[in-house]
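Chapter summary example.
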Amino acid sequence: MSRQLTADRLPEDRRKEIFRALVEAQDQGINVPASRKQVAEQFEVAEAQVRQIEHEGLDAAWPPL
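The structure predicted for these 65 residues follows.
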């Protein structure tokens, strides 16, 4: 039985890397749902994790904001 890590169990530097990739994808004109899917595939995490990281990054004003 496999278990995926929740976003808060990923190291902060990894979460910031995922957040940066998400922001950069959206800055390139990729819509929000497509950017979440792309980043989830790129980093091999669930889209739900990407959404959690997105909210965390926005709340904490992580770079590149």
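To summarize the output: Residues 11-60 form one domain.
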